[in-house]
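TICKET: design request
STATUS: open
ATTACHED STRUCTURE:
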């Protein structure tokens, strides 16, 4: 069994400009087919629009409020909301609240920088 505490996991910045703390993945545990990380965005912060050709993601909102866009679908999200992002779907999240936005990212297969493709023609809503 591997147990990781968020206070002991170092932060790093992903290709899409979010700060994450990878809790469990093949890099630090016995988990091999997925990854779980906590992401944080400052007030007014946003990820860069991107997609993952191989990875499907689930975002689970912990704290704060945001605007989530997956392709042409735009929704306001907050604590308790879970967002499904299929492989190949362009997406972006923007912190619309007055506090740090915190959410969990579950990726299958595990998050890899090489599976992140930036979007240059993103129609922000």
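STATUS: resolved
RESOLUTION: sequence designed for all positions
ATTACHED SEQUENCE:
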């Amino acid at each position: 069994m591997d147990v990781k505490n968020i206070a002991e996991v170092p932060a790093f910045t992903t290709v899409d400009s979010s700060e994450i703390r990878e809790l469990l993945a093949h890099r630090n545990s016995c988990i091999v087919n997925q990854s779980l990380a906590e992401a944080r965005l400052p007030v007014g912060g946003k990820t860069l629009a991107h997609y993952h050709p191989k990875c499907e993601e689930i975002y689970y909102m912990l704290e704060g409020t945001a605007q989530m866009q997956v392709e042409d679908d735009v929704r306001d999200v907050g604590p308790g909301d879970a967002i499904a992002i299929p492989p190949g779907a362009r997406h972006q999240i923007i912190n619309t609240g007055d506090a740090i936005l915190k959410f969990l990212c579950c990726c299958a297969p595990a998050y890899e920088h090489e599976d992140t493709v930036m979007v240059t023609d993103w129609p922000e809503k």
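CLOSING REMARK: The CA atoms of residues 44 and 61 lie 16 Å apart. The chain has a mean pLDDT of 94.
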